[in-house]
Amino acid sequence: MKTATKSPAKPAAAKTTATKTTASKAATATKSTPGTSRGKVKAKSTAAEGLAELFEDSLKDIYWAEKALTKALPKMAKNATNQNLIDGLTSHLSETEEQIARLEQVFEIIGKKAVAKKCEAMDGLIKEGQDIMESTEVGAVRDAGIIAASQKVEHYEIATYGTLVAFAKTLGMDDVANILHVTLEEEKAADLSLTEAAYNTINFDAAEADDSEVE
């Protein structure tokens, strides 16, 4: 009678190697899976955790921006030569001061102290405006540059106030949304006024200055 022969057992080393290979593949798959922490920005210790906190933080940001503009606008007006542009900048300075008062009213409504937090975006736009004035001769060309810089500021403010209005409505603060909406409409009107000034006179005058240089 023949005895059945058992198959030889696989070496333990082979099992260990297979286990390591499987683990290595799993690790590689985890690294390449979208949505992992790779590339994510680490939040600051003071980072907002809710929409209400983000809303308050955005208020502080635009509050600083408006205060900074009360210093930048008079300088732009002083460097402008077109009377319509000078009047427009002077008028918007008065509006900006009213907008600051509205923001303080909003802070009071939400029960928070009116605190300004440096707005890096506005700081950059104001510095760019300064650079434009330094890079242009006094007259129509500088006026055109001032309009360009001012409209960049207006577009930033329109985007900011539009977002704040949306946040306020989402948070159920309709009274706050209405206050901020007034400022939003003022910024849109200011932007339109600058556009009209640019297309009606100033940009054409600047173009004529270029033509005279060529001649």
Overall outline: elongated
Tally of strands? 0
Cα-atom Rg, whole angstroms? 30 Å
Kindly estimate the percentage of residues that lie in beta strands according to DSSP.
under 5%
If you had to describe this structure to a student in words, what would you say it looks like?
The longest helix has 41 residues, at 174-214. With 215 residues, the chain is mostly helical. It starts with 11 loop residues before the first helix and ends with a helix. It contains 6 helices and no strands. It has helices spanning 12-32, 51-79, 83-109, 120-134, 140-170, 174-214. Helices cover 76% and strands 0% of the residues. The relative contact order is 0.11. The model has no long low-confidence stretch (mean pLDDT 86).
Keywords:
215 residues; elongated; 6 helices; 0% strand; mainly alpha; single chain
Which helices and strands, and how do they pair?
Blueprint: H1 12-32, H2 51-79, H3 83-109, H4 120-134, H5 140-170, H6 174-214
Quickly describe the structure.
By secondary structure, this protein is mainly α. The protein has helices at 12-32, 51-79, 83-109, 120-134, 140-170, 174-214.
